[in-house]
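2024-03-11 09:14:02 INFO worker-7 job=invfold-0412 stage=load source=structure_tokens
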């Protein structure tokens, strides 16, 4: 009985960790590039932040996450085609 309860609780904690990581990701759009890399990104509120995303151009969707040290880490969003 205790083994089942422990296993269920561990599974729930693991799911919460995965979901919380996904909830922190913020969708942004590249608003300025230097020809090779995205250098500025705009969030849904219209605020612009400095980023460095290799091979991203103006208009590309970005997945960004705030790290504990205040650095914004972004990558080019992967778009799935049907």
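2024-03-11 09:14:09 INFO worker-7 stage=emit residues=82
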């Amino acid at each position: 009985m205790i083994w089942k309860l422990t296993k269920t609780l561990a599974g729930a904690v693991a799911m919460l960790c995965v979901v919380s990581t996904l909830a922190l990701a913020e969708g942004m759009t590249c608003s300025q590039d230097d020809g090779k890399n995205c250098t500025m990104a705009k969030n849904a509120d219209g605020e612009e932040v400095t980023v460095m995303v290799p091979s991203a151009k103006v208009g590309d969707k970005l997945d960004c996450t705030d790290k504990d040290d205040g650095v914004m880490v972004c990558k080019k969003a992967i778009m799935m085609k049907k």
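2024-03-11 09:14:09 INFO worker-7 stage=report msg="The radius of gyration is 18 Å."
2024-03-11 09:14:10 INFO worker-7 job finished
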